[in-house]
Amino acid sequence: MGKAYFLSGDAGQPVDSPSVHDDDGWDAEVSSETESLLEENARLRALVVQLSTLVLKNVVEQK
Questions:
Q1: Which residue ranges are recorded for the region named Disordered (predicted)?
Q2: Which pLDDT tens digit goes with each residue over 19-47?
């Protein structure tokens, strides 16, 4: 059997399968997920700041 060669961008995707880019809502979903991650990241950063403040305050009080 001979080797199959794919054109650029077609590798591993059957001819009849729809492309990911054909779905109009995929970028909206990614945008929503990204926004959720950024919000969670901001909350976690705020918690780290609070924890750091408490730790520093307790270290100073012990001295």
A1: 1-33
A2: 555 656 777 788 999 999 999 999 999 99
